[in-house]
Amino acid sequence: MIRLALAALTALNFTHLDWLKRPAGKQVTWQIYASAVKKDDRAGPYRYVGDEDEGIGCVDDVARAAILYARHGARTHDPRALAQARAALEAVLAQDRGDGAYFNFLWGDGSPNKTGPTSRPGLNWWTARALWALGEGALAFRASDPAYADRLRARAMRTVALLETDLARRDNTWKHGGPGWFVGDGADATAVVVLGLAALDKDRTDARVAWLMARYAEAIALWAPGTGPLADAHLPSLVPNMWHSYGAHMLHALAEAGQRLHASRLIDAARREADHFTPRVLLAGGPVASYTPSLHAYPQIAYGVEPTVLGLLALADATGDARYAKLGGLFASWLTGNNSAHRPMYDAATGRAWDGIDPKGASTDSGAESTIEAMLTLEALASHPELEPYLNAKKLTGPHFQTSLGTVTVTIPLAINAKR
Question: Can you give the pTM of this predicted structure?
Answer without folding.
Answer: 0.97
